[in-house]
Amino acid sequence: MESEIRDVFRHCMRFPVPISASVIADELLDTANKKRCITVLTRWSQCDLERGVKLQFSKTWTLLCKHDTVEHVLPSGTSSQIENELLSCQSPSGTLQAVIRAEAGHQYLEVWGQNGLEKSLDLTALNKHGRVYEDAQFGCLAWSPCEKKLLYVAEKKRVEPSVHSSFGSANEDGGLVLLEEQDKNVYVEDWGEGLVGKSSPVLCVADLNKATVIIYAGVPPHISPAQALWAPNGRGVVFVGLWNEPFRLGLKFCSNRRSALYYLDMKGNCECLSSDGMSVSSPRMSPDSCWIVYLQGEVFGPHHQCLSMMLYDMKNRSSSVLVDVIRRAEKGQFAGIYESLPSHCWSADSERVFFSSACENKKAVFSVDRTTGKIIQVCGLDVLRLDDFGSVQLLTIQKDLMVLSCSSPNQPPCLRAGFLSKVNRAEDMQLSNLGGADVYEGFDWQPMLITPPSQEENHQFSGLNFGAILLKPYSPPERRKTPLVVNIHGGPHAHFAADWNATAAALTKLGFAVLMVNYRGSTGFGQDSIESLLGNVGSQDVKDVQRAVLCALQNETTLDPDRVVVMGGSHGGFLACHLIGQYPDFYRACAARNPVINAATLLGTSDIVDWRYSSVGLQYAFDRLPTSQSLISMLDKSPIIHAPQIRAPVLLMLGGRDRRVSPHQGLELYRALKSRNTPVSICSIHLGDMTAAILNQSTHQVIGEEETDEANHDMVIFLGGHDGQMPVGFWPGLNPYLFFDIL
User: Of 389, 379, 395, whose CA–CA distance to 44 is shortest?
Assistant: First the structure.
């Protein structure tokens, strides 16, 4: 049975997931008939559990088009593995590709053309800066309009203390960029979970003709530059500046960090283009270089939020709101912006902007008209023959060709491509299938929209709904009722979309039903839903999950109410542990990854201390100190206070390098349960000759593939019994295997 379980999970995890797409060539074949040949390059991610690695590969499609219609899609040929690549970018002309690659401890900037490698710079040997930033929060790689320079962000170079009074590096204008002395005994801040070691970014420009790298001067010292792009004509750069004073807070998964949009010219003059009291991200220049759209949100409060889209007029040097924050939406209507904009999001005429966003239990693609502000769903799941898919993600739009990733809970991702209509009519768009998985897994799924009963209403934000997605086998095994796994997302301001989820699919193929809950506070339901959770964690969200489970059991009589287990990570682990404490006779087992157990003790160790206050309804300021009242409030909303009531077996998986939720959180619950003889286990992992009690190479979100296989084995033993005997709370005839979505 154990080998069968492993095989099912490996089957579901083998499907590649598209990461990005770009148009790399557009050749006119017949001017009179407007026939074109367009080449689309796509990048994918795929797990290889045999080797314990996550691979990336590229795949190219050739589209034969006529009058902005795809007539034929030529076979793509074989895929090519991408190795050691940190960043890549196609030049404006499409003839060159820039790549930043890491090999043997060095980082290289490569330029590839039609005849192979045309230029290679050893950035490490040039010694102008530290490591290049490749992450989504800071990283960028951008060609100048003349295609002779490349812009990127890297760690500021620090030098060892010396008798010399100053150190410097000449910038492009001949000025001196001072380098900081580094005392290895002095603490250096970084930007927290997922950004360890990244502290002081600088703007870097590689001059390909001179084979040199220049560090731009003029960025204010209290600002950390990120997400940079070239200004029109290459006479300066536009970038997001993140406040790093009085100290840095964790940035990943947090859209509430004070930041602004800046312009920096060649002489080192820096100008703020936006409000400096907000949070800013995703600047995108229009094809005519007259407009910039960017996303804007509030500072502090919810760690993630509904964002407004701002429009900056380059000529008049002013910003206006293009898409406002959506407080609430009508059923099935646009519910706001919750994620970064694609790198290419403008129509060719600079009149429309396209983006993906969560909308209730799905993800859809929308457009907004730059002039009127009108928003439409350009990929209606009915009109565009996408009704078989639960969610659609926009990968790119270039030369008015849109490439989409489409999937459902029972169908792995595939690609669709089509040209925009000349007017805002989605029904005029014809999509073609590029490729990807052509598989339908043998189970059913359905979205759920749930209204809380009056006793569970939030009277400050009354009338809010929330959602869930139920996956279930076509027929229960051996004609028995189907056991239910309740899967809870973290965040809490995150979202389960009706897209491909390898973990949920594998569990369903093994005979479980899986309920994925979007409780109030999840994205995709408007800003009121997000704000309703502040001060109500541990109660409103717990009741929402329990209500969703009761609705599923009531509506689906094939589900077994006596065989319900719960799993979740981070805030999802927080809720899972709450549920088995508040409803001790309801759940038969719990598996939690990096759960928040005691918010009061977490206050001093988390990289997002502001959220520890905001989550319990308290205002945060950098100089705020804990009080007995605030600590009591945090404790009262924590699962640890329900530990005496917990009777279900608990499996904990803890990341030893987690900067967001310390592994000592899980250990706190472990000790509380062990002292009360409640079954509890921490997933162990073998590292060489050692067995660690925690996954000590792991962070908050990601666990390596090699560690994954070990964790799989331990979870099978926990849930299946060491000697083939089912522990209390489990059922005969089916070996349950709870697995985390950790890849």
Answer: 395
User: Has 700 been annotated as catalytic?
Assistant: yes
**Which one from 347, 529, 570, 615 is the annotated catalytic residue?**
570
Count of H-run helices and E-run strands, the chain? 11, 42
pLDDT one-digit tens code per residue, 667-686: 999 999 999 999 998 875 33
Catalytic residue at 633? no
Highest mean pLDDT among 61-75, 510-524, 674-688, 716-730: 510-524
Kind plus residue range of the DSSP H or E element containing 590? strand 589-593
Q: Let me know the angle formed at the C-alpha of 624 by 663 and 246, rounded to the nearest 5 degrees.
A: 85
Give the C-alpha separation, 330 to 253, whole Å: 27
pLDDT digits (tens, 9 = 90+) for 591-623: 999 999 999 999 999 999 999 999 999 999 999
**One of 340, 614, 700, 741 is an active-site residue; which one?**
700
CA atoms lying within 13 Å on the CB side of residue 279: 20
Count CB atoms within 10 A of the CB of residue 628: 7
Q: Is 658 among the catalytic positions? A: yes
Q: Any residues with CB less than 8 A from the CB of 525 and at least 6 apart, and which? A: 329, 335, 360, 464, 465, 466, 467, 518
CA–CA distance, 536 with 542 (Å, rounded to integer): 9
Beta-carbon contacts of 450 under 8 Å, excluding residues fewer than 6 positions away, are 465, 466, 467, 468, 544, 547, 548, 551
Count how many residues are written for the chain.
Answer: 743
Three-state DSSP at 2 gives: helix
- How far is Cα 530 from Cα 630, in angstroms, rounded to an integer? 21
- Out of 528, 607, 658, 741, the active site residue is 658
**Number of Cβ within a 10 Å radius of residue 393:** 21
